[in-house]
Amino acid sequence: MPVKHLKYTWLLPAFLLMMAACKDDKYALPTAKNGLHNDCIKRTLGPNLVGQPIEFAYAMAILPGQGKIVSAQVEASIAGAPQTWLQNNSFYTNGSGDDVGIPVGDPSVNEGAVTKVNFTKDTSAATLRYYYYIPEAARGKTVRFTFNAKSSNGETVSYAMGPYTISKMDMKLDIPVKDAANCFISIADLTAYNSTDAAASPDKIDLVYLYRSIPNISFNHSLVSPGADKQYLPGVSLPPNANRSTKISKVWNLQDFNLARLKYGVYIDDLDFEKLNISNAPNYAINMKEEAGAWVETADGKYRAYIFMNKVNNGSKSAVISIKRYTLK
Amino acid sequence: MQKYFSIAGLLLLAAFTWIACTKENPVDEDGLLITTRAECYVSNFELLGTDFQTVLTGTPQIDTTACTIKAKVFFGTDLTNLYPQFSLVTDAKLDPKITGKVNFSDLDHPKQYTVISGNRQVRKTYTVYITVQQP
């Protein structure tokens, strides 16, 4: 055999190796690890607002032959609000994609910053949901969580989550406003007053909601500060001494998830308010549509806010608004 | 054999040198291509509010002879914070450039924008007249 042919013989094993390398390995069921294990995910997205929950899913498991789970608990670095709880159901997802809960223990008990569930069923694997309701004490601070599980064989595991920054801002949802009724909006109080209540505290009235159907122009649903030019407050009788000039800048396509509760995964956070500059904005916003919004800064410079128009109704001359508010001073 | 390689190498070198010495297409001070087009006009005009929605009540009147743009905006439009948008003929550019919000509130002194043709030889200054819808 000529030598020049011999020098190509190395190609044959190379091809064989390549073929062997491309074969798929046969699937084998994974072997469960020994001992008690745990894992945790945070399910809530967006800013952490005081009064709202942060939801976690805490999973724990042990091989059935090695013991069962006897308890699970969560310790927060700042005690949660009284509504805080650890669900005593373990969930599985059924064929329709729905989460179905199975009770595995007693209802949770809060002891200071610790929330605990004692298991009452023989359980070797469970995923419990934890809802930490953010207390006022946590505003502007960071919170950490330590999840713990204990098994009947004396093993314990823990999982640390956080730190999570709690927003400084406030939120008020679904404030009904109506033309010539509860139309005087106070950012300081996050509410809409009628003329009687507004007269009692005119210095707190930042905006007036009004609806007008005026020929040749598009006025419709509007938010106008008491100090605005009278042409933007047609037929409005203001409470005496209500004269604040609030800066307001219209926004479209900013359906904050917390306020709108729609499909859009957009969140307004503290940073948005901190960076906001509407210093040369007008003191009125005419022709606001449903799902529109407006950035607002109060005349005293104390608050910045985002007002979202959840619903508008031309017939009843009313709207439903939701507000996120950030305190500057 | 080596002689042929040398000749081929020299030919390649000459070709690269020739390409490198070819004059590039001219560009202006903004790095934009200067072309042969002498057309110079605004084909469309738009005004957006802070919510990036149009504030125009209808199609603006663009007079390419008088070089004027007449636009009517909704009642209550905040004239101090508007984003103008010009559509220009191919290869033309605008001076001054629009880099953000523009204040159109001084209705007695309408804003002026100059359109510069693709060959950068023709300049036409358009005046934007804004009127506000009234009840």
TrEMBL record, chain A:
Residues 24-327 form the DUF4466 domain. This is DUF4466 domain-containing protein. It comes from the Bacteria. Keywords: Signal. It comes from Chitinophaga rupis. Residues 1-23 form the signal peptide. The keyword Cell cycle does not apply. Pfam families: DUF4466.
Automatic annotation (TrEMBL), chain B:
Residues 1-20 form the signal peptide. The keyword Signal applies. It comes from the Bacteria. PROSITE patterns: PROKAR_LIPOPROTEIN (PS51257). Keywords: Signal. This is Uncharacterized protein. It comes from Chitinophaga rupis.
